[in-house]
Each structure stands twice: as C-alpha cells, then as structure tokens.
Amino acid sequence: MMTTVHHHHHRFLFLQRHPHFLFPAKPHHHHPFISKPKPKSLHTSHIHTQTLHTPPTTTTTSSLASPPSSQILSIRDALLSRHLSAVEIAESFLSRIRLTEPRIRSFLHVAEEGVMREAEELDKKIEKGEELGPLAGVLIGVKDNICTVDMPSTAGSRILDGYRPPFDATAVRRVREWGGIVVGKTNLDEFGMGSTTESSAFQVTANPWDESCVPGGSSGGSAAAVSARQCVVSLGSDTGGSVRQPASFCGVVGLKPTYGRVSRYGLVAYASSLDVIGCLGSSVADAGILLHAISGHDSLDATSSKQEVPDFTSLFISVNSFESKPLKGLRVGIIRETIGDGVDQTVISSINAAAAHLEDLGCSLAEVSLPSFSLGLPAYYILAASESSSNLSRYDGIRYGNQVDADELRSLYGDSRADGLGDEVKMRVLMGTYALSAGYYDAYYKRAQQVRMVVRNSFKAALDEHDILISPAAPSAAYKIGNNIICSQCLKVVALYIYIYTH
Fold first, then answer.
1. CA quadruple 382, 300, 297, 69: dihedral sign
2. Which entry of 74, 143, 195, 389 is annotated as an active-site residue?
3. 3-class SS at 121?
4. Largest CB tally within 10 Å, which of 93, 396, 409, 477?
5. CA Rg value for the chain
6. Which candidate, 266, 307, 108, 151, places its Cα nearest to that of 277?
7. Could you tell me which residues are beta bridge partners of residue 7?
8. Band of the pLDDT at 65, cuts 50, 70, 90?
9. Known catalytic residue: 256?
C-alpha cells in the first residue's frame, strides 16, 4: 500500500510502492493483459501486433553507487554500452502500447512517428560519440492538461478538443532538454476534476491489474501507463491527491513536489494555489530523477521557487552500504485521524506494517493527532471550486475553447460552455461561483482560507516534533468502475459545510 510521507526539510510528498502490488505472486484477478474484447479508445491510433516486445528489464547499475532499481539508468547503460539502440527501445514500448492500449486506454494521443524520429536522431548522436542527456532514450507520458507543442492538449474536455498549443510547458521543455522522448498524452478527469478518469470527455482508463477497477485520478492515465509498462515514467498534476491516489491504485511511485518547486507554466489551470506538476515512475529512483529534471525557478511562473534545486540522485544509497539501522534517529509520526473510521482495515494493516518496517530500520514511531485534519476536505473543495470558477471562465468559445453557432452573444457563451464542459466540471464551477458571489464570499471562501491556515499550522507544529508524517494515500484500494462512492461522500461533506454556514 502506498504511504504518504511529508519530509520536514525538503517538504515534498512521495509515495513508496509495496512490491507485492507491482509483482503479485498470485493476482487476485485475471492477468491484466490476457486478450479479451474491449471498446477501442478515442484519439489513439492502434496498430495490432502478434508479438509482445517487453520493455527492457530493470537492473541496477554500477553508476551512482548502485542506486535503487531504475529503468532510466538501465536504459542509459544499455545505450552507452550499445547493448540496445534507441530505436529498439522505442519500438519495444510502442509495441507494448499497441498490445495493451485497446483495453487499458491510458493515452488520448500517441506520437509514434515523432517517437521513432527522435529515437533515430538519438542513435546518430551515439554513433558520433556526442554527450547524452540524463533522460536520453527514456519514453515519457505527459498528462493531457500539460501543454505540448507538437501534440493535442485537451485537458480531457470537449471544449479543447483539437487544441494544439504553440509552446511546451516548462516541465515538458526541460524533459526534452534532458533528452527525454514524449511518447504521448495520457487520459485524465476533465480539467483534473475527479478521481477515477470517469469524468474524461473521451474515455475511461482501466486499472492494469484489474480492468474492472478504476486507476484513480485525475492522473489515472499517467499512473496506468507506467503500471502497464507503456512508458518509463510520466508527468501528472496534483491538486488534491491526483498523482498520489492513482499511484496507490496502480502500484507505482507517485510524487507531489512542494508548491513552487516545479513551474506551472503550461499547466492548464484548475485551482492555481493548489496545482502542482508531479512525477510517476516504477521506482523511487526514477521518480527522483524525473523530479530533478523538471525542478527549478522559471521566469514564466511568478510562483516558482528560487531556492536551489538539490541533486536528488546524489541522495541514492546502495542497499549494500546500509547499516543494520540505516534510519536510526529519524522521527516518524503516524497521523491518527487517517487510520480510523472510514478507512478500510486492509489499508490500516498495510500502514501499520509499513510503520513496523520503518521501526525495524531504526526510526522512532509516535502517533500524532491533528484535530483540524477533518476540516481540510470541505475547505479544499470550497477553495478548489472557487478557483476553478475563475480559471475556467476563459473557456467561452471566443477567447478559448470550441465555439458553437449562435444568433447572439449570450447564447454563444452559454451554448459553447454547455456543449463543451462535462457535468462534473459544471457542478464545481457552479459551486465555486456561488461561494464567490456577493454576500457569500466571507461565509465560504474567506472562511475556507482561514481553515486552510489552521490545518497548515497544525501540520507545521507536528513537523516541528517529527521528521516525517505518514498516512494512507487513499482510504481504500481501487474500486470498481461506476462505483465512485468516495467522491459522492466528499461532495456531501461540502454540502453539509455550506448548509452549516448558511443557517
């Protein structure tokens, strides 16, 4: 089970997968890639193949003192040793996509021609003995709300269907500068609003380990693509768990950096004070390498941090150099409110097992109570909905977004939004508009901001006493498609919150 960790010094969240979820000895359900008929996905070119070219296996390397298992470093070693060419590596992943994509539906767009062209150019560089970037030959999926100059960027919405940005998001540009190859755009809940990919305007992504279950969301396509080995790593975005929760559901590593660590330039805005571009990979090492690539100040984003970016890869430690108690002295707090009522017993058991393992490695454990923790959910929904109401006002069919035919301006605005936006987005925009309206601003938005500070201060106080706080990434394992009970419960909490402060 995935564990949320908030480090006191670097203040970023990362999730460590339990190996059982990635390589189960006896899967509880059918194998994820046994052929059976499924509807074809939209916007994705499928080419049928008779053979499966499995991506290169992950092995450790002698570089970086034999760091944790890393596909990125394995690919680099294979290229430098001429054991594999960039074209062979690219074709192996593309073949995997062709085989699995009709059932998993991780991608809204796959750039096969572009991938092969970049791979061929990389092989020419290798032949000439030119220096390679740290991500050379690494195929990377990009969530479809992150702009890419040569591919569609729809944010999972009909209103942006067919939109191709004239620029790369800063995170994508930095990935390309490091030699990474963007394989395609991954599916998501429309504008990032959802936790299952079921609110995508185009398709629903399946969990690679059980196709009847959701992959999580909103970065469900990015998590599923890494889990199904359709790409090496992927970029997602996290507003309120949209990288960490799908990483948990799909058995991969999901990392939400500190706000400001990664530039938001080129990320389609949902809630600007909460949105963060995050990383997904099959190992902590790969997530760390990707984070290092995309981090740093950006003059195009006034909220990006100017603090120096540490070399995360230099912190990798070989397992062979571990002492018997390598984490001795580390103070770990378990948040009591996250392992109580409403959390599946299997999740609680996994968290307790992870905590016991940390204790075996030398950590000191303590239970931490954060009484304000439960206030975070209603405050989050009020703030996120309010900011989305403002951010999405630009999609009116004139400034941005697809336009419908209308006889007069008011109808053009209304019909373009009605036709282009989905039900989930409309609901959140309406809720946010109401919270920001005259006479209700102080009761909702201002009060939610005050609650936000209370929750923040309680976490800060807890982190003054502990180096790390751990909690589940989600209250349950992946649930069945069409059974999104958790989201409904969240909205009921927000409705209650609004009712209380209205009466």
1. positive
2. 143
3. helix
4. 93
5. 22
6. 266
7. 468
8. very low
9. no
**How much is the pTM?**
0.85
Cα torsion 100, 106, 111, 117 to 10°: value is: -60
Contact 428, 363 (CB under 8 A): no
pLDDT of residue 313: 80
Are the C-beta atoms of residues 2 and 350 closer than 8 Å to each other?
A: no
- Which pLDDT tens digit goes with each residue over 7-17? 333 333 323 33
d(CA 503, CA 498): 9
Strand partners, 176: none
* pLDDT value of residue 24: 29
Tokens coding 206: 């399946």
Q: pLDDT tens-digit profile of 349-385?
A: 999 999 999 999 999 999 999 999 989 989 999 999 9
| Helix (H) or strand (E) segment spanning residue 245 | helix 244-250
Q: Pick from 454, 457, 432: which is nearest to 444 by CA?
A: 432
Examine residue 218 and say whether the peptide bond preceding it is cis (omega within 30 degrees of 0): yes
H-only helix segments in 406-470: 409-420, 423-436, 447-465
Which residue in 74, 157, 218, 389 is the catalytic one? 218
pLDDT at 5: 36
What does the H/E/C string look like for 12-69?
Answer: CEEECCCHHHHCCCCCCCCCCCCCCCCCCCCCCCCCCCCCCCCCCCCCCCCHHHCCCC
Bridge partners, residue 110, by sequence: 184
Phi first, then psi: what are they for 222, rounded to 5°? Answer: -65, -40
416 is catalytic: no
* The one catalytic residue among 41, 70, 85, 242: 242
Query: Is 374 a known active-site residue?
Result: no
Tokens of 167: 């620029």
Contact 106, 211 (CB under 8 A): no
The order of strands in the sheet holding 253-256 is 107-110, 181-186, 139-143, 233-238, 276-281, 253-256, 13-15, 3-7, 468-472, 331-335, 364-368
Say which DSSP state 442 is in: I
| DSSP code of residue 283 | S
Q: How far apart are CA 180 and CA 142, in angstroms?
A: 11
Cα dist from 229 to 197, 209, 443, 457, 497, whole Å = 19, 12, 47, 40, 42
> Could you tell me which residues come within 8 angstroms of residue 190 by beta carbon, excluding any fewer than 6 positions away?
155, 156, 157, 199, 200, 201, 421, 422, 424, 425
Query: What type of residue sits at position 78?
Result: A
How far apart are the C-alpha atoms of 154 and 191, rounded to whole Å?
A: 9
Residue 224 has pLDDT above 70, yes or no: yes
